[in-house]
Amino acid sequence: MPDDFMVNDWWESVxxxxxxxxLEVHAVLKTxxxxxxxxxVNVEERIIKIPIGPWPKDKKLKTVGHYACASLVDGLxxxxxxxxxxxxxx
Length: 90
Known about the structure:
Layout: H1 6-19, H2 31-37, H3 59-87
Protein backbone atom coordinates (compact mmCIF):
# COMPACT_ATOMS: atom_id res chain seq x y z
CA MET A 1 0.00 0.00 0.00
CA PRO A 2 1.32 3.49 -0.72
CA ASP A 3 3.04 5.46 2.06
CA ASP A 4 0.37 8.17 2.00
CA PHE A 5 -2.47 5.65 2.46
CA MET A 6 -4.69 6.63 5.41
CA VAL A 7 -4.38 3.19 7.00
CA ASN A 8 -0.64 3.84 7.38
CA ASP A 9 -1.37 7.11 9.21
CA TRP A 10 -3.83 5.34 11.51
CA TRP A 11 -1.40 2.48 12.23
CA GLU A 12 1.44 4.90 12.96
CA SER A 13 -0.78 6.87 15.36
CA VAL A 14 -1.90 3.70 17.14
CA UNK A 15 1.72 2.54 17.37
CA UNK A 16 2.89 5.80 18.93
CA UNK A 17 0.01 5.77 21.39
CA UNK A 18 0.62 2.14 22.38
CA UNK A 19 4.33 2.86 22.86
CA UNK A 20 3.39 5.21 25.69
CA UNK A 21 2.02 2.14 27.50
CA UNK A 22 5.17 0.16 26.57
CA LEU A 23 3.14 -2.03 24.21
CA GLU A 24 4.58 -3.17 20.89
CA VAL A 25 2.43 -2.97 17.80
CA HIS A 26 4.67 -5.47 16.00
CA ALA A 27 5.22 -7.83 18.94
CA VAL A 28 4.02 -10.78 16.88
CA LEU A 29 7.16 -10.48 14.74
CA LYS A 30 9.24 -11.34 17.82
CA THR A 31 7.19 -14.36 18.92
CA UNK A 32 9.43 -17.03 17.40
CA UNK A 33 12.58 -15.64 18.99
CA UNK A 34 10.86 -15.20 22.34
CA UNK A 35 9.75 -18.83 22.26
CA UNK A 36 13.32 -19.92 21.49
CA UNK A 37 14.63 -17.70 24.30
CA UNK A 38 12.16 -19.39 26.65
CA UNK A 39 13.65 -22.78 25.82
CA UNK A 40 11.31 -24.09 23.16
CA VAL A 41 13.00 -26.09 20.42
CA ASN A 42 12.03 -26.79 16.82
CA VAL A 43 10.22 -23.47 16.61
CA GLU A 44 9.00 -22.97 13.06
CA GLU A 45 7.93 -19.59 11.80
CA ARG A 46 5.88 -19.15 8.65
CA ILE A 47 4.80 -15.75 7.45
CA ILE A 48 1.90 -15.85 5.03
CA LYS A 49 -0.05 -13.14 3.31
CA ILE A 50 -3.79 -13.22 3.66
CA PRO A 51 -6.36 -11.20 1.77
CA ILE A 52 -8.48 -8.69 3.64
CA GLY A 53 -11.74 -8.89 1.77
CA PRO A 54 -13.54 -11.20 -0.63
CA TRP A 55 -11.58 -10.19 -3.75
CA PRO A 56 -9.63 -13.44 -4.48
CA LYS A 57 -10.97 -15.72 -7.18
CA ASP A 58 -9.88 -18.83 -5.25
CA LYS A 59 -12.83 -20.03 -3.12
CA LYS A 60 -10.70 -20.85 -0.06
CA LEU A 61 -8.86 -17.50 -0.15
CA LYS A 62 -12.16 -15.72 -0.67
CA THR A 63 -13.48 -17.31 2.55
CA VAL A 64 -10.26 -16.45 4.39
CA GLY A 65 -10.60 -12.86 3.13
CA HIS A 66 -14.16 -12.62 4.44
CA TYR A 67 -13.05 -13.76 7.89
CA ALA A 68 -9.98 -11.51 7.92
CA CYS A 69 -12.06 -8.51 6.92
CA ALA A 70 -14.71 -9.24 9.56
CA SER A 71 -12.03 -9.69 12.21
CA LEU A 72 -10.34 -6.44 11.28
CA VAL A 73 -13.56 -4.42 11.14
CA ASP A 74 -14.79 -5.86 14.44
CA GLY A 75 -11.48 -5.13 16.14
CA LEU A 76 -10.73 -1.65 14.82
CA UNK A 77 -12.73 0.18 17.45
CA UNK A 78 -11.16 -1.66 20.36
CA UNK A 79 -7.68 -1.48 18.87
CA UNK A 80 -8.01 2.26 18.25
CA UNK A 81 -10.18 3.64 21.00
CA UNK A 82 -8.05 2.89 24.06
CA UNK A 83 -4.62 3.85 22.75
CA UNK A 84 -5.79 6.89 20.81
CA UNK A 85 -7.87 8.32 23.66
CA UNK A 86 -5.55 7.46 26.56
CA UNK A 87 -2.12 7.29 24.97
CA UNK A 88 -1.87 9.74 22.13
CA UNK A 89 -2.45 12.93 24.06
CA UNK A 90 -1.11 12.03 27.50
